[in-house]
Automatic annotation (TrEMBL):
Name recorded for this polypeptide: Integration host factor subunit alpha
Oligomer status and interactors: Heterodimer of an alpha and a beta chain.
Family per record: Belongs to the bacterial histone-like protein family.
Matches recorded under SUPFAM superfamilies: IHF-like DNA-binding proteins
Domain of life of the native organism: Bacteria
Gene Ontology MF term list: DNA binding; structural constituent of chromatin
Its job: This protein is one of the two subunits of integration host factor, a specific DNA-binding protein that functions in genetic recombination as well as in transcriptional and translational control.
GO cellular component term of the entry, any: cytosol
Annotated keywords: DNA recombination, DNA-binding, Transcription, Transcription regulation, Translation regulation
Any one biological process term the GO annotation gives: positive regulation of metabolic process
Keyword Transcription: yes
InterPro entries found in the cross-reference section: Hist_DNA-bd (IPR000119), Histone-like_DNA-bd_CS (IPR020816), IHF-like_DNA-bd_dom_sf (IPR010992), IHF_alpha (IPR005684)
Organism per entry: Gluconobacter japonicus
Length: 107
């Protein structure tokens, strides 16, 4: 098992689309920038057949230092949440759903 990197994605775009590596990199960076910018504004990003990225606000709460047991306040913050689509969940579990048109032969 390996981690997918930006370089892997650029290479995949390059091999599939036939653009130069530089153009493939520019496309990937543009897409990632759009996703990041949208999330920064607090809006959700839905990629059909893949999942939804959204920002959730967590309120202030009291935590505990596990070493000392001392209570400390945890400040409110925004967290990124990913909810996979049913199609992606099915693919991860090896279920091919004809209704969704999922075909693993291309991957």
């Amino acid at each position: 098992m390996s981690t997918v990197t930006r370089a892997n994605l650029v290479e995949h775009i390059y091999s599939r689309v036939g653009l130069s590596r530089h153009d493939s990199s520019m496309i990937l960076e543009s897409v990632l920038e759009k996703i990041s910018g949208t999330l920064e504004t607090g809006e959700s990003v839905k990629l059909s057949g893949f999942g939804t990225f959204s920002v959730r606000q967590k309120g202030e709460r009291i935590g505990r230092n596990p070493k000392t047991g001392v209570e400390v306040p945890i400040l409110p913050r925004a967290v990124l949440v990913f909810r996979p689509s049913q199609i992606l969940r099915d693919r991860m579990n090896g279920i091919v759903n004809e209704a969704h048109g999922v075909d693993d032969a291309d991957d």
